[in-house]
Amino acid sequence: MEIGAYSFGDAQRNPDGSLRSTTEAIQNLFAAIVHADKVGLDYFGIGEHHTTTMPASSPGALIAAAAAATSQIKLGSAASIIGTDDPVRVFQQFATADAISGGGRIEITAGRGSSVETFPLFGYEMSDYDQLYAEKLDLLMNINASTTEEITWSGTVRSALDQLAVVPRPVKGSMPIWLATGGNPGSSARAGQLGLPISYGIIGGAPHRFAPLAQLYRASAEQAGHSADSTKVSVAAMGLIAPTKKEAMERFYPGWYNLNVEMGRLRGWRAPDKRDFVAQAEAPGAFYVGDPDEIAERIVHLHGYMGHMRHFLQMDLGGLPQEYLIESITLLATEVKPRVDRLLAAK
Protein backbone atom coordinates (compact mmCIF):
# COMPACT_ATOMS: atom_id res chain seq x y z
CA MET A 1 0.00 0.00 0.00
CA GLU A 2 1.14 3.54 -0.71
CA ILE A 3 1.50 5.73 2.38
CA GLY A 4 1.48 9.48 2.10
CA ALA A 5 0.60 12.90 3.41
CA TYR A 6 -1.42 15.89 2.29
CA SER A 7 -1.64 19.50 3.35
CA PHE A 8 -3.52 22.71 2.72
CA GLY A 9 -0.59 24.68 4.10
CA ASP A 10 -0.56 25.61 7.77
CA ALA A 11 0.21 29.08 9.09
CA GLN A 12 2.33 28.95 12.23
CA ARG A 13 1.30 30.88 15.34
CA ASN A 14 3.10 33.24 17.65
CA PRO A 15 3.08 32.62 21.44
CA ASP A 16 0.14 35.03 21.77
CA GLY A 17 -1.89 32.99 19.24
CA SER A 18 -1.60 35.45 16.36
CA LEU A 19 -0.89 34.05 12.90
CA ARG A 20 2.51 34.17 11.29
CA SER A 21 2.86 34.83 7.57
CA THR A 22 1.32 32.83 4.77
CA THR A 23 4.70 33.06 3.03
CA GLU A 24 6.27 31.05 5.86
CA ALA A 25 3.45 28.49 5.59
CA ILE A 26 4.22 27.87 1.92
CA GLN A 27 7.95 27.65 2.59
CA ASN A 28 7.30 25.12 5.38
CA LEU A 29 5.06 23.06 3.10
CA PHE A 30 7.69 22.95 0.40
CA ALA A 31 10.32 21.86 2.93
CA ALA A 32 7.99 19.13 4.21
CA ILE A 33 7.47 17.74 0.69
CA VAL A 34 11.21 17.63 0.03
CA HIS A 35 11.72 15.89 3.38
CA ALA A 36 8.96 13.38 2.60
CA ASP A 37 10.75 12.43 -0.60
CA LYS A 38 14.05 12.07 1.23
CA VAL A 39 12.68 9.68 3.89
CA GLY A 40 10.75 7.55 1.39
CA LEU A 41 7.09 8.54 1.62
CA ASP A 42 5.12 7.37 -1.42
CA TYR A 43 2.80 10.31 -2.02
CA PHE A 44 2.27 13.97 -1.11
CA GLY A 45 -0.95 15.78 -1.99
CA ILE A 46 -1.52 19.53 -1.89
CA GLY A 47 -5.06 20.60 -1.25
CA GLU A 48 -6.50 23.84 -2.58
CA HIS A 49 -7.53 26.24 0.16
CA HIS A 50 -7.85 30.01 0.24
CA THR A 51 -7.73 31.01 3.90
CA THR A 52 -5.11 32.82 5.97
CA THR A 53 -4.60 29.72 8.11
CA MET A 54 -4.43 27.27 5.17
CA PRO A 55 -2.98 29.21 2.21
CA ALA A 56 -2.03 26.51 -0.32
CA SER A 57 -4.15 28.21 -2.97
CA SER A 58 -2.07 27.12 -5.96
CA PRO A 59 -1.35 23.36 -5.93
CA GLY A 60 0.00 23.44 -9.49
CA ALA A 61 2.71 25.98 -8.63
CA LEU A 62 3.82 24.10 -5.52
CA ILE A 63 3.82 20.76 -7.31
CA ALA A 64 5.93 22.13 -10.15
CA ALA A 65 8.46 23.46 -7.65
CA ALA A 66 8.43 20.19 -5.71
CA ALA A 67 8.81 18.19 -8.92
CA ALA A 68 12.16 19.91 -9.48
CA ALA A 69 13.35 19.29 -5.91
CA THR A 70 12.33 15.63 -5.49
CA SER A 71 13.14 12.41 -7.30
CA GLN A 72 10.84 9.57 -6.20
CA ILE A 73 7.67 10.73 -4.47
CA LYS A 74 4.35 10.97 -6.34
CA LEU A 75 2.85 14.47 -6.22
CA GLY A 76 -0.76 15.45 -6.71
CA SER A 77 -3.51 17.85 -5.82
CA ALA A 78 -5.74 16.87 -2.92
CA ALA A 79 -7.87 18.25 -4.39
CA SER A 80 -8.07 20.82 -7.19
CA ILE A 81 -11.43 22.59 -6.97
CA ILE A 82 -12.18 21.98 -10.60
CA GLY A 83 -15.64 23.60 -10.66
CA THR A 84 -14.19 27.06 -10.01
CA ASP A 85 -10.97 26.65 -11.95
CA ASP A 86 -10.23 26.41 -15.65
CA PRO A 87 -9.55 22.77 -16.61
CA VAL A 88 -7.29 23.91 -19.44
CA ARG A 89 -5.04 25.83 -17.03
CA VAL A 90 -5.11 23.04 -14.44
CA PHE A 91 -4.06 20.51 -17.07
CA GLN A 92 -1.31 22.78 -18.41
CA GLN A 93 0.11 23.43 -14.94
CA PHE A 94 0.20 19.75 -13.98
CA ALA A 95 1.52 18.63 -17.38
CA THR A 96 4.30 21.19 -16.96
CA ALA A 97 5.11 19.73 -13.53
CA ASP A 98 5.04 16.26 -15.08
CA ALA A 99 7.64 17.33 -17.64
CA ILE A 100 9.83 18.80 -14.90
CA SER A 101 9.52 15.61 -12.83
CA GLY A 102 10.65 13.44 -15.72
CA GLY A 103 7.22 11.88 -16.11
CA GLY A 104 4.93 9.53 -14.18
CA ARG A 105 4.93 11.19 -10.74
CA ILE A 106 2.23 13.85 -11.17
CA GLU A 107 -1.51 13.33 -10.60
CA ILE A 108 -4.62 15.50 -10.57
CA THR A 109 -7.39 14.95 -8.06
CA ALA A 110 -10.54 16.76 -9.12
CA GLY A 111 -12.93 17.76 -6.36
CA ARG A 112 -16.08 19.80 -6.06
CA GLY A 113 -14.76 21.38 -2.88
CA SER A 114 -16.06 21.68 0.63
CA SER A 115 -14.21 25.00 0.72
CA VAL A 116 -16.86 27.26 -0.76
CA GLU A 117 -14.59 30.32 -0.60
CA THR A 118 -13.59 29.71 -4.23
CA PHE A 119 -17.05 30.62 -5.53
CA PRO A 120 -17.06 34.33 -4.55
CA LEU A 121 -13.28 34.52 -5.01
CA PHE A 122 -13.47 33.53 -8.69
CA GLY A 123 -16.89 34.92 -9.50
CA TYR A 124 -19.06 31.81 -9.61
CA GLU A 125 -22.53 31.14 -8.21
CA MET A 126 -23.11 28.34 -5.71
CA SER A 127 -26.34 27.55 -7.55
CA ASP A 128 -24.17 26.32 -10.46
CA TYR A 129 -22.14 24.02 -8.17
CA ASP A 130 -23.13 20.69 -9.77
CA GLN A 131 -23.15 21.79 -13.41
CA LEU A 132 -19.80 23.54 -13.13
CA TYR A 133 -18.21 20.42 -11.74
CA ALA A 134 -19.77 17.97 -14.19
CA GLU A 135 -18.86 19.95 -17.32
CA LYS A 136 -15.38 20.98 -16.22
CA LEU A 137 -14.52 17.44 -15.16
CA ASP A 138 -15.66 16.30 -18.59
CA LEU A 139 -13.38 18.85 -20.26
CA LEU A 140 -10.42 17.86 -18.07
CA MET A 141 -10.91 14.19 -18.91
CA ASN A 142 -11.22 14.97 -22.63
CA ILE A 143 -7.97 16.91 -22.63
CA ASN A 144 -6.18 14.17 -20.70
CA ALA A 145 -7.44 11.40 -22.98
CA SER A 146 -6.59 13.21 -26.21
CA THR A 147 -3.87 11.73 -28.39
CA THR A 148 -3.05 15.12 -29.91
CA GLU A 149 -2.49 18.66 -28.65
CA GLU A 150 -5.54 19.98 -30.53
CA ILE A 151 -8.70 19.84 -28.43
CA THR A 152 -12.32 20.22 -29.50
CA TRP A 153 -14.97 20.51 -26.77
CA SER A 154 -18.18 22.41 -26.06
CA GLY A 155 -20.37 22.97 -23.03
CA THR A 156 -22.44 25.61 -21.28
CA VAL A 157 -20.17 26.85 -18.48
CA ARG A 158 -17.12 27.75 -20.54
CA SER A 159 -16.29 28.86 -24.05
CA ALA A 160 -15.89 26.05 -26.58
CA LEU A 161 -12.57 24.76 -27.89
CA ASP A 162 -12.29 24.15 -31.63
CA GLN A 163 -9.04 22.44 -32.54
CA LEU A 164 -7.11 24.60 -30.08
CA ALA A 165 -3.72 23.45 -28.81
CA VAL A 166 -3.46 22.59 -25.10
CA VAL A 167 0.21 22.15 -24.31
CA PRO A 168 2.40 20.63 -23.03
CA ARG A 169 1.29 17.01 -23.12
CA PRO A 170 2.33 14.74 -20.21
CA VAL A 171 5.50 12.70 -20.72
CA LYS A 172 3.56 9.43 -20.94
CA GLY A 173 0.65 10.91 -22.88
CA SER A 174 -1.73 11.29 -19.95
CA MET A 175 -1.79 11.68 -16.16
CA PRO A 176 -3.84 9.89 -13.50
CA ILE A 177 -7.01 11.84 -12.71
CA TRP A 178 -8.74 10.98 -9.43
CA LEU A 179 -12.21 12.00 -8.30
CA ALA A 180 -12.33 13.32 -4.73
CA THR A 181 -15.38 12.97 -2.51
CA GLY A 182 -16.30 13.38 1.11
CA GLY A 183 -18.73 10.50 1.00
CA ASN A 184 -21.49 11.40 -1.44
CA PRO A 185 -23.02 8.21 -2.96
CA GLY A 186 -23.59 10.03 -6.24
CA SER A 187 -19.88 10.85 -6.47
CA SER A 188 -18.97 7.20 -5.86
CA ALA A 189 -21.29 6.11 -8.67
CA ARG A 190 -19.99 8.88 -10.95
CA ALA A 191 -16.36 7.87 -10.43
CA GLY A 192 -17.18 4.25 -11.16
CA GLN A 193 -19.17 5.08 -14.28
CA LEU A 194 -16.35 7.31 -15.57
CA GLY A 195 -13.67 4.74 -14.77
CA LEU A 196 -11.79 7.17 -12.52
CA PRO A 197 -9.95 6.19 -9.34
CA ILE A 198 -11.64 7.62 -6.26
CA SER A 199 -10.23 9.38 -3.21
CA TYR A 200 -12.37 9.44 -0.05
CA GLY A 201 -11.77 12.29 2.39
CA ILE A 202 -12.77 10.92 5.80
CA ILE A 203 -12.72 13.62 8.47
CA GLY A 204 -15.34 12.38 10.91
CA GLY A 205 -16.96 9.21 12.22
CA ALA A 206 -15.76 5.63 11.92
CA PRO A 207 -13.81 5.28 8.64
CA HIS A 208 -15.14 1.81 7.90
CA ARG A 209 -18.61 3.28 7.38
CA PHE A 210 -17.31 4.27 3.94
CA ALA A 211 -17.08 0.60 2.92
CA PRO A 212 -20.55 0.55 1.25
CA LEU A 213 -19.50 3.58 -0.83
CA ALA A 214 -16.38 1.76 -2.03
CA GLN A 215 -18.59 -1.20 -2.93
CA LEU A 216 -20.95 1.10 -4.84
CA TYR A 217 -17.96 2.61 -6.66
CA ARG A 218 -16.59 -0.78 -7.72
CA ALA A 219 -20.03 -2.07 -8.75
CA SER A 220 -20.65 1.06 -10.84
CA ALA A 221 -17.30 0.66 -12.57
CA GLU A 222 -17.94 -2.99 -13.34
CA GLN A 223 -21.42 -2.23 -14.65
CA ALA A 224 -19.97 0.45 -16.94
CA GLY A 225 -17.45 -2.03 -18.31
CA HIS A 226 -14.29 -0.60 -16.77
CA SER A 227 -11.44 -2.93 -15.92
CA ALA A 228 -10.42 -3.73 -12.36
CA ASP A 229 -7.10 -2.00 -13.05
CA SER A 230 -8.85 1.36 -13.31
CA THR A 231 -10.77 0.97 -10.03
CA LYS A 232 -8.50 2.32 -7.33
CA VAL A 233 -9.51 3.62 -3.90
CA SER A 234 -7.51 5.93 -1.67
CA VAL A 235 -8.29 7.32 1.78
CA ALA A 236 -7.35 10.77 3.05
CA ALA A 237 -7.71 11.36 6.78
CA MET A 238 -6.36 13.57 9.56
CA GLY A 239 -3.76 12.37 12.01
CA LEU A 240 -0.32 12.66 13.55
CA ILE A 241 2.35 10.17 14.51
CA ALA A 242 4.72 10.62 17.44
CA PRO A 243 6.99 8.25 19.37
CA THR A 244 4.17 7.65 21.89
CA LYS A 245 0.38 7.93 21.80
CA LYS A 246 0.49 10.49 24.61
CA GLU A 247 2.85 12.73 22.67
CA ALA A 248 0.77 12.44 19.51
CA MET A 249 -2.41 13.44 21.36
CA GLU A 250 -0.77 16.39 23.09
CA ARG A 251 0.78 17.63 19.85
CA PHE A 252 -2.32 17.30 17.64
CA TYR A 253 -4.99 18.64 19.99
CA PRO A 254 -4.04 22.37 19.95
CA GLY A 255 -4.20 22.48 16.15
CA TRP A 256 -7.53 20.65 16.11
CA TYR A 257 -8.86 23.15 18.65
CA ASN A 258 -7.66 26.14 16.63
CA LEU A 259 -9.14 24.70 13.42
CA ASN A 260 -12.53 24.18 15.03
CA VAL A 261 -12.56 27.70 16.45
CA GLU A 262 -11.87 29.06 12.96
CA MET A 263 -14.49 26.86 11.31
CA GLY A 264 -16.96 27.96 13.96
CA ARG A 265 -16.34 31.55 12.92
CA LEU A 266 -16.47 30.85 9.16
CA ARG A 267 -19.11 28.13 8.93
CA GLY A 268 -20.99 28.05 12.18
CA TRP A 269 -19.44 24.92 13.67
CA ARG A 270 -20.14 24.52 17.39
CA ALA A 271 -17.46 25.30 19.95
CA PRO A 272 -14.76 22.61 20.17
CA ASP A 273 -15.15 20.04 22.92
CA LYS A 274 -12.11 17.97 23.91
CA ARG A 275 -14.34 14.94 24.42
CA ASP A 276 -15.11 15.03 20.68
CA PHE A 277 -11.40 15.13 19.92
CA VAL A 278 -10.63 12.16 22.16
CA ALA A 279 -13.49 10.15 20.65
CA GLN A 280 -12.19 10.77 17.12
CA ALA A 281 -8.56 10.09 18.08
CA GLU A 282 -9.28 6.64 19.52
CA ALA A 283 -10.23 3.65 17.35
CA PRO A 284 -12.55 3.47 15.51
CA GLY A 285 -12.61 7.28 15.23
CA ALA A 286 -11.61 9.21 12.13
CA PHE A 287 -8.28 10.61 13.37
CA TYR A 288 -5.08 8.58 13.02
CA VAL A 289 -3.29 9.94 16.06
CA GLY A 290 -0.84 7.67 17.81
CA ASP A 291 2.45 5.79 17.78
CA PRO A 292 3.63 3.86 14.70
CA ASP A 293 2.26 0.51 15.89
CA GLU A 294 -1.27 1.85 16.44
CA ILE A 295 -1.39 3.78 13.18
CA ALA A 296 -0.16 0.82 11.12
CA GLU A 297 -2.70 -1.51 12.71
CA ARG A 298 -5.54 0.94 12.11
CA ILE A 299 -4.63 1.44 8.44
CA VAL A 300 -4.54 -2.30 7.88
CA HIS A 301 -7.83 -2.71 9.75
CA LEU A 302 -9.49 -0.19 7.42
CA HIS A 303 -7.97 -1.93 4.41
CA GLY A 304 -10.04 -4.98 5.35
CA TYR A 305 -13.16 -2.88 4.68
CA MET A 306 -12.06 -0.54 1.90
CA GLY A 307 -9.38 -2.45 -0.03
CA HIS A 308 -7.68 0.87 -0.61
CA MET A 309 -4.26 1.15 -2.22
CA ARG A 310 -3.22 4.50 -0.70
CA HIS A 311 -3.67 5.98 2.77
CA PHE A 312 -2.52 9.54 3.37
CA LEU A 313 -2.76 11.91 6.31
CA GLN A 314 -3.22 15.63 6.89
CA MET A 315 -0.99 16.31 9.87
CA ASP A 316 -0.36 20.06 9.85
CA LEU A 317 -3.37 22.04 10.94
CA GLY A 318 -4.10 24.82 13.38
CA GLY A 319 -0.47 25.90 13.68
CA LEU A 320 1.25 22.55 14.32
CA PRO A 321 4.94 23.32 14.95
CA GLN A 322 7.00 22.41 11.88
CA GLU A 323 9.32 20.12 13.84
CA TYR A 324 6.36 17.94 14.85
CA LEU A 325 5.24 17.69 11.21
CA ILE A 326 8.73 16.69 10.07
CA GLU A 327 9.03 14.03 12.80
CA SER A 328 5.57 12.68 11.95
CA ILE A 329 6.46 12.42 8.25
CA THR A 330 9.66 10.58 9.16
CA LEU A 331 7.80 8.11 11.39
CA LEU A 332 5.11 7.62 8.75
CA ALA A 333 7.70 6.70 6.11
CA THR A 334 10.22 4.77 8.18
CA GLU A 335 8.10 3.14 10.90
CA VAL A 336 4.43 3.02 9.83
CA LYS A 337 4.92 2.04 6.18
CA PRO A 338 7.13 -1.02 6.88
CA ARG A 339 4.68 -2.18 9.54
CA VAL A 340 1.74 -1.83 7.13
CA ASP A 341 3.62 -3.83 4.49
CA ARG A 342 4.39 -6.61 6.98
CA LEU A 343 0.85 -6.78 8.33
CA LEU A 344 -0.70 -6.89 4.86
CA ALA A 345 1.76 -9.56 3.71
CA ALA A 346 0.84 -11.71 6.71
CA LYS A 347 -2.86 -11.69 5.86
TrEMBL record:
<dbReference type="Pfam" id="PF00296">
    <property type="entry name" value="Bac_luciferase"/>
</dbReference>
<dbReference type="GO" id="GO:0005829">
    <property type="term" value="C:cytosol"/>
</dbReference>
<dbReference type="GO" id="GO:0004497">
    <property type="term" value="F:monooxygenase activity"/>
</dbReference>
<dbReference type="InterPro" id="IPR036661">
    <property type="entry name" value="Luciferase-like_sf"/>
</dbReference>
<protein>
    <submittedName>
        <fullName>Putative LLM family oxidoreductase</fullName>
    </submittedName>
</protein>
<dbReference type="InterPro" id="IPR011251">
    <property type="entry name" value="Luciferase-like_dom"/>
</dbReference>
<feature type="domain" description="Luciferase-like">
    <location>
        <begin position="20"/>
        <end position="304"/>
    </location>
</feature>
<keyword id="KW-0560">Oxidoreductase</keyword>
<dbReference type="InterPro" id="IPR050766">
    <property type="entry name" value="Bact_Lucif_Oxidored"/>
</dbReference>
<dbReference type="GO" id="GO:0016705">
    <property type="term" value="F:oxidoreductase activity, acting on paired donors, with incorporation or reduction of molecular oxygen"/>
</dbReference>
<keyword id="KW-0503">Monooxygenase</keyword>
